[in-house]
Amino acid sequence: MKTTRLILLSTLLLSPLAGCDGGTDDNGVNEGETDSGDGDGDGDTETETETGEPEPLDDDEDGLTNEEEAELGTDPKKKDTDGDNYWDPWELAEGTDPLDYDSRIYTGFWPYNPNKDELVQGTWATTGKQVGKPFPRQSFLDQHGDYVDVYDFANFTVNQAMTPAFFIFDISAQWCGPCHNVANWIKGVDDANTTWIQELYPTVREKVHSLRIWWVTFIVQDQAGGAPTLADAQSWFTVHKDNYIPILVDETQQVQDTFLGNAFPHFFLLDPTLAIEYFPPPGGGTNEDPYPAVGLVDTLL
Q: What are the residues facing 48 on neighbouring strands?
């Protein structure tokens, strides 16, 4: 890995990206409620177009005018009428109901990035393990049965530190005992199989649960070593329940074929835009630092 990239990790965390207005739920996703504003500073909430005509009012500044919100039945004073942490226009774009809490973009309350199409788009043909290579844009089945676009997590800043979150991608298999041990450790279990991990990487769990790091687990093999299914993600979630961690199914095993290292479990680090920040070389782990990508989270992030 280039030294300059490692130095930049600390620099990036000192310069938080712009985030959305509003509070957060337990998962840190934006609640999307805001006060109405006075856009032109004249004491009211109307602005004028270049022709002198008043612009349509948008009290909550969510992109829907008050008139449109009246037609939809949504609240013109709230970006997120039903309180499910997804703004009304996002739900309309994705075909969910902005008036129904249970009809939301992701059951797991994962982030949503309306600007993801503007990112550099990784593909399976162009991706790789080299620093700076973008992870492929794809939607993966999660433990709740939703297809999740991984680029919705990009440039996430709604966390305690208000800094752009990096990513640990965890490649695990259903049959792999050490993979299950790591999953237990991340969720907070301290026992004979996990205490040594906590001692080596004492800050990582807190960083994951404060959403400074998104820990994303890819199940790439089932119990027999074949292609995983939704049942594997659901089983994994039942055993290692942690609402902060997306469990994604590598149905085509492209993640495995492209990114698996020498053994399970395998971890690599991505920057806030989902480009490779560090990919461990073969034999890169040591007894003192068996998972060097996780070690970077502990020491640099």
A: 54
